[in-house]
Structures are given as C-alpha cells and as structure tokens.
Design brief:
0% helix; Immunoglobulin-like; globular; mainly beta; single chain; 4-stranded antiparallel sheet
C-alpha cells in the first residue's frame, strides 16, 4: 500500500496517487477508495484499476486539508492503508 502526493505550483489541489498490491486483496473483483472527500458514500467510491499487479487510482484533492480514507473491497470488506 502506498500513497504519493504531487503538488502543483499553479493549483490549489494536490494529485494523490493510491496503490494497493493485488496480493493484499487476493481474488477481489472490485476495489474502491472511500473517505472524507466523498462523505464516506460507498456509491461515490473512487474505482481502482488493476495495472501491473497493483490496484491504482489518482485523485485531485484540495491542499491544506487532512483526509481519512479506507479501501473498500468487493463492496463489503474494509481495508486500512
């Protein structure tokens, strides 16, 4: 599990890249990110795509705010970072 942030000089947002190894969620069909930034609404979960053995997603978030999040696997299993 990893999290990388990319800040921009001309924007008030930060690109946050999430990655979760496929082996951390063996046999899963769907992985999404749910957190403060989408009001913990599972229907607004950010889908992660499987690429090269990693589930990955990128999200633009406002700078200067701390967000909590969790991974939601197959709509019923929660995983912390």
């Amino acid at each position: 599990m990893s999290l990388k942030k990319q800040f921009f000089k001309t924007k008030d947002t930060c690109k946050v890249n999430f990655s979760l190894p496929e082996e951390a969620v063996p046999g899963s069909k769907k992985v999404t990110i749910v957190g403060d930034f989408n009001s913990w609404d599972q229907t607004l979960g950010i889908p992660m795509k499987l690429k090269g053995g990693q589930y990955v997603a990128a999200v633009d978030l406002p700078v200067g705010i701390e967000f909590q999040f969790r991974y939601l696997i197959d709509d019923n299993i929660w995983e912390n970072d």
